[in-house]
Amino acid sequence: MISAMTGLADLDTPCLVVDRGKVAANAERLRTHLAKLGVPLRLHVKTAKSLAATDVVLGAGRPPITVSTLREAEQFFDGGYRDILYAVGFAPHKQARARELIERGAQLTVVTDSLETARSLSNARVLIEIDTDGHRAGVKPDSEALIPLARALRDSGNTVAGVMTHAGESYNSRGDAALRAMAEQERAGAVRAASRLREAGFDAPVVSVGSTPTAHYAENLSGVTEVRAGVFVFFDLVMAGIGVCRVEDIALSVLATVNGHRADKGWTLIDAGWMALSRDRGTAKQPLDQGYGVVCDLDGRPIPDLIVVDSHQEHGIIAHRSGGKAPALPVGTRLRILPNHACATGAQHAGYHVVDGAREVVDRWERFNGW
Amino acid sequence: MISAMTGLADLDTPCLVVDRGKVAANAERLRTHLAKLGVPLRLHVKTAKSLAATDVVLGAGRPPITVSTLREAEQFFDGGYRDILYAVGFAPHKQARARELIERGAQLTVVTDSLETARSLSNARVLIEIDTDGHRAGVKPDSEALIPLARALRDSGNTVAGVMTHAGESYNSRGDAALRAMAEQERAGAVRAASRLREAGFDAPVVSVGSTPTAHYAENLSGVTEVRAGVFVFFDLVMAGIGVCRVEDIALSVLATVNGHRADKGWTLIDAGWMALSRDRGTAKQPLDQGYGVVCDLDGRPIPDLIVVDSHQEHGIIAHRSGGKAPALPVGTRLRILPNHACATGAQHAGYHVVDGAREVVDRWERFNGW
């Protein structure tokens, strides 16, 4: 239990802080958008990896979710979730563990794009992974491999439940028009693949698409049955750089304390290094490189042009983004650092200290890691 | 307990594997080198964060150690260690927690380079951090700030136990001559600062230096009383790139399974992404960029020119380092990935599966994370 008097200034550092009101607002925004398009969200829980955080997004209901590990599937099953899509290409040796979850009552759906995997699976509910953007895995919507893959799955005794795709290349898109086009490309490719399966005699009821950028920029989801997205619950500097959110929408930050200076270099040192911030440098490829994170005051307001320019295991180096000298912040000053990538930064911690628009700590949410 | 029959092929993936014999050999090599120079090792435990792993390095004794967090100090204190150097610039609000450890019987030494911190501490045993290479924190050996800082510490009722320095710039040095020169620069700067303190009337008995490269390349440690090093226990691709170890000395790897292919791109996909490998790309700055890691077979032998060229949260992409196509490895193939940076990769996991030159899992070592 958190004492009513605990504030951010009382916490040891580094630690993870999340603003509950921002999580709720981020969730409401996407829910409203998808409701207009008439397609349900299948939340990806890999970002928060926390039942308590997910409750803020989904409420007390236990709607369908997406996971990136069997550990997530097991943890969320124990939290009452039943309809679970494991959205990473299935490795056949994981069948026993998956089956155990199914025997306990989960509707677990797995994905593959591999004929070898298809032949080794049995009694599984499977989505075929479709590649709509050349980003990672999947068979192309018009690939000659699609129908033989579906037949191999069926011949091994599996259910071909449909298709899934993830337009990860949307992370490299810039501007409303490009993001809308990417969303349409993702939709059209998935629908095309599903149509081909149906023409070949498969029911293939599910057409699952999604990434946080395309989920927010989609204008038409005809033929799509569900949208997956995850990082929007917290948002981060990469998403702000793409334009999917504003910096002030970012719900996650790392609380840190000033522990030294290098006046000759214009550096302020903090006790949050890459171990607390993660090594993720996702904004390095964007027009505005945010280093290891944007420096905010204890209320979460960015301090103009201050970023974490470098990091060591337990040291962060704060400087002006121009390389010019910034005024030194006194030793003991508490700061909040906005992360490049919420999924990566979250994973460095065991839980969240929860605030709600102020410095008071109103809750603590556990999270888990591992596989 | 690990069944005698458990082998690497039986483990779920991704997971962390460590070769105990390599850890022992790495430890023996540095111990022998430092014994010749007549200076004891103060092991940095931040890499393994594991009592069991540290036992392989240090044996049953409980010699002085170095930590990067108070959590490490507490965990290793509970494991019997008493003489603990917390080698990250001390943030004053951590005094209560540090004092608790001291009251339980620890000889905890902290470090600072800050006059503000010095004035806020009391009854602490302190090393003044010296900057011998412009890398991070510390006062220069000849700085006018050194003696006033020591006086401020004494005036506040602290013990000025001496100096410490970390030549982190050695990570950017190449070639035996440059590394030897960096070790000498680190030694000379620390000894110079300690001499100045002694001339000003401080005992300053401790002269603590170290980084894994300088610890291995030092030829003369006159005036130095202890050497700190950590990552050598596992070594990694960054250290191999510097030339401090061979690739075959690397004791740590991430076990992964092939779960798909992109024949059109020459990719093999595995179930270990950056969540299992870490986002660390330390070799990106080196002449030989190893991507997210070197791909080895199940026996730990590198497969020529195969590296993890890109990674997503739970996907790793293996390809030929040239960008050319590599033969596809069948779905289900188990691989071991050597990490860029052992400290970062270790931190993504809760423990180590231990082997000893073969595929049999002979032990499991717990590790901890957090602050």
CATH architecture of the largest domain in chain A: Alpha-Beta Barrel
Oligomer: homodimer
Distance between the termini of chain A: 28 Å
Low-pLDDT residue intervals, each spanning 5 or more residues of chain A:
none
- The arrangement of helices and strands of chain A along the chain is EHEHEHEHEHEHEHEHEHEEHEEEEHEE
Can you give the mean pLDDT of chain A? 96
Beta content of chain A: 15-25%
Care to count the β-strands of chain A? 17
**Gyration radius of chain A, in Å:** 22 Å
Strand order, largest beta sheet of chain A? 2-3-4-5-6-7-8-9
Search tags:
homodimer, Lyase, Ornithine Decarboxylase, Chain A, domain 1, six-stranded antiparallel β-barrel, TIM Barrel, eight-stranded parallel barrel, 24% strand, 371 residues, 2 domains, alpha/beta
Write the layout of secondary structure elements.
The structure is a homodimer of 371-residue chains.
Chain A: E1 15-19, H1 20-37, E2 41-44, H2 51-58, E3 65-67, H3 70-78, E4 83-86, H4 95-103, E5 107-112, H5 115-120, E6 125-130, H6 146-155, E7 159-165, H7 176-199, E8 206-209, H8 212-217, E9 226-229, H9 237-242, E10 252-262, E11 267-270, H10 274-277, E12 294-296, E13 302-311, E14 316-320, E15 334-338, H11 342-346, E16 351-355, E17 363-366
Parallel strand pairs in A: 1-16, 2-3, 2-9, 3-4, 4-5, 5-6, 6-7, 7-8, 8-9
Antiparallel strand pairs in A: 1-10, 10-11, 10-15, 11-14, 12-13, 12-15, 13-14, 16-17
Helix pairs in contact in A: 1-2
